[in-house]
Amino acid sequence: MSSAGRALPDAGLVVAARQGDQRALDDVVAASLPLVYNIVGRALRGHADVDDVVQETLVRVIRYLPALNDPAAYRSWLVAIAIRQVRDWEQRRRLALNRDAGLDAIHNVPDPASDFAGMTILRLGLTDQRREVAEATRWLDPDDQELLSLWWLEETGEITRAEVADALGLSPGHVAVRIHRMKEQIQSARGVVRALGARPGCPDLRAVSGEWDGTPSPLWRKRLARHVRDCAFCGRLGSTLLPIDRLLAGLPMLPLPAGLSAHFPSVAAPPAAAQAVGYHPPGPTAGHTAGTTPPGGVPSDGGGGPSIVDLAVNRPRGLVPSLAAGVAAAVLAITMAVVILPEDPPAPSWAAPPPAAPTAVASPSVAPSPSARPSSKAPVVPAVSSARKGVGVWNFAGASQALANSKAGWYYTWGTQHPGISTPRGVTFVPMIRSAENVTATELARARAAGPDLLTFNEPDMPEQANMTVEQALDLWPQLMATGSRLGSPAVAWGGPDPQGWLDRFMTGAQARGHRVDFITLHWFGADFTTSTAVDQLRRYLQAVHQRYRKPIWLTEFALIRFDSGGAQFPGQEQQAAFLTAATTMLGQQSYVQRYAWFGLPATDKDRSGLFSNGTEATVVGRAFQAAR
Description:
6-stranded parallel β-sheet, 25 helices, 10 strands, RNA polymerase sigma factor, transcription regulation, sigma factor
């Protein structure tokens, strides 16, 4: 087990930092730096912006640490933030490239430092099979390259499988399936690399690759791998390939470049093998004395120099030049040739801040039942069964205990707060800006403080809900983007994939205006109460939306409810429970479905799809939800 990864702060230190202990916060951030640097450095392949993305990650850690409910979850929370910042960087880079598409002459100039795998191969003099693995990573599907970086950290003992799963927003079983598929792709690519490098080579392979431009890609990996698999000559070349797991064994964490570590305050250095942090405190920063607060409001460490928090927040861009070169010279290329796409972002384990004073909350699609104020004391929490599984909550007697008993990993209230509802330990509250009237400075500030994800305009295509035009939503969208949160699209009641439907016109307009939309939010209610038919209808709806917009999906309201002129009609409890079980199983198989939320937590005569009739009494549907993952 690598000591570098396990040098991350313990829960007690995190608690102290969360409660305002400046020295503890300094130690927490400093101890986190090596892992953040490894994730970002590998994902960006030594790009010159590595130091800036590391800084942005640390700034978010400092900003949101007080909102972390479960100190024991700090590591997976940290990994999720780092992955999110990498993806945001990639998205910004792509937008810039698209915006400057006319500057082809500039973008097409080769960057001698851009081929990270090639640089590492040259500088480290890797053995043949490790060199082939490094080259094979260039051929991976983009969505597997991020997984490769995290899996390597798992293999070297820096993070656990559960932490990988939490950072990606997937179940451990789903991660295992994806890792197995990724390893098969690497093995296939290694065979291609070896066959292409063979001398004398296979004449049939030369014929197959005649139109290949020499740039590795998943498409050409599949084409060339098909030949390698069927060719007796090329197939024999791969018979001596060692398992990739053995090639990774014993490799240490990427050490911080000396130039970077010299800018951070002293922490207990890990063993020499890890080489994570080597720091000797500089003298007092000019204009500041130890223990005072420098400009920007971040205290120094009281030990003669600026704290790591000060440096992380206030460090000017470019403070540490040649960071990319330090990365390239220090790490195996297998973990560096990674391209991060915003296609499948992680679901960080954020937790809600302490409940604010109760205020009026917007009504969900079915009016909330009268509520009684529960105890402000957080309830005892059964284990959360899945970070993906959520529920829509409106207040009722025993709501806090029911939420805890549901084993949901997250919840929302159709507002930016959760008045009268205590957030159980390990559970995430996700805020919502429900309608145009909620786009105010106060509500936006609350949304920003609640965490990194933000749900937006609830059923704008319905007169009795947000009731907004597409143009109105687009005009307000920049104010939502200014929160810095990951934004879900407005949640339409129906017609998500319909050409010229409300959502389609919004997404087209958002693209034209350069607006950022990070995931698609959907509602779905089935009118056919036959389980197999309903699940198939839901699956096809989600697939159609994903194929149209190519973004992750949050399904934030779903159940079997038939709406007609006579009002809402519900199936029997057993039918609803059977649908819930089958539907959540199906949702777990769709990699693009990042989160889902059942409608809803309370069960009354009116809300008969609900999960709990009081804090402890689960309905048949509620028991099915507790078992769902």
